[in-house]
Amino acid sequence: MSDAVPGRRIGKIMMFLAWGAGILLATRYFGAWEDRQHNPNPQPRSVKGNGYVEVRLLGNRAGHYVVDGRINGTPVTFMLDTGATQVAIPQPLARRLGLPLGAPIALNTANGRSEGWRTRLSSLQLGDIRLNDVSALIAPGMEGDGVLLGMSALKQLDFTQQDGTLVLRQRSTP
Fold first, then answer.
1. For residue 7, what pLDDT band results from cuts at 50, 70 and 90?
2. For 97-165, what is the HEC assignment?
3. What are the residues whose beta carbons fall under 8 Å from the beta carbon of 147, sequence distance 6 or more?
4. Are 50 and 116 in contact (CB under 8 A)?
5. DSSP state at residue 72
6. Would you state the pLDDT for residue 37?
7. For residue range 81-118, what is the model confidence (pLDDT) as tens digits?
């Protein structure tokens, strides 16, 4: 027969469950913290003024501006890239967005030359900033789900950067 007291056994089980819950909560907390470090702008706030809409973005630890937005109403994550001529979308994401493959185009990337396709975005949104009919390209060699927000979109906005904050401003047409 066992000499273990029934209360002691329940105590050990409760201690095991408490440790498991603690590890689960810590994992969840630090996972969310890591996500915020990569993308400090998951829900960009907009400021509306007289004749403009403005969105302020914080840079991440690496100094990049990453922000959640929408393409044709579907949520995506953008990384702003003033060195990119076009908005560049990874091919698997373009498929999920239902983007048509337009004319083929030769791409010069950091990884060398490749071939992609032209496409058009009906809408692109960052907070309350909304751009329509934006030229973009579908890049088969891009990894992940991040969209490079290049100059085909950014040229339609005023932007300034200072002290780790980027301000995007869209002027209203009269």
1. confident
2. HCCCCCCEEEEEECCEEEEEEEEEEEEEEECCEEEEEEEEEEECCCCCCEEEECHHHHCCCEEEEECCE
3. 71, 76, 77, 78, 79, 87, 88, 89, 90, 93
4. no
5. T
6. 52
7. 988 999 999 999 999 999 999 999 998 776 778 899 99
- The whole-angstrom separation of Cα 130 and Cα 124 is 6
CA separation for the pair 151, 105 (Å, rounded): 17
Does the domain made of 61-153 have the CATH classification 2.40.70.10?
Answer: yes
Eight-class DSSP state of 6? H
Task: Report how far apart, in Å, the C-alpha atoms of 6 and of each of 1, 2, 9, 151, 156 are.
Answer: 13, 10, 5, 69, 71
φ and ψ of 4, to 5 deg: -70, 135
What is the chain's mean pLDDT, rounded? 86
Q: Cα-atom radius of gyration of the chain, to the nearest Å?
A: 23
**Looking at residues 47-71, what average pLDDT do you find?**
92
Question: CA of 150: how far to CAs of 124, 135, 147, in Å?
Answer: 12, 10, 9
Give CA–CA dist 96/18, Å, rounded.
41
